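Below is our example:

___
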Amino acid sequence: MPDELHETRLDDDLTLLTETLEQVLKSSGDPADQKYIELKAKAEQALHDVKSRVSQASDTYYYRAKQAVYRADDYVHEKPWHGIGVGATAGLVIGLLLSRR
C-alpha cells in the first residue's frame, strides 16, 4: 500500500509538472510579462520538487532492494540446502516454461 501511495504522488507530481510546463510554453515568453515570470518560477519549483521526490524514491527502493539481498544472502548462509532447493526448483520451472515456447 505505501508503494501505491508513492506511485500516486509521483504520478500527481509529474502531471503537475507537465501542466505547468505546458502553460509556460503557451505563454507569450516575453521576459517582461509578469505572468510568464510567475509561470517560469512555478515550473522551476515544480521541477525541483519532482526531482527531489524521484531521488528520494529511488534511494528508498535501492535501500529496500539492498536489504532484500542481504536477507536472502543471510538465509542462504544459514540454510544452504534450502537455498539450493529453491534455486533448483526455480531453474526447473523456468526451464519448463522456456521449453514450451
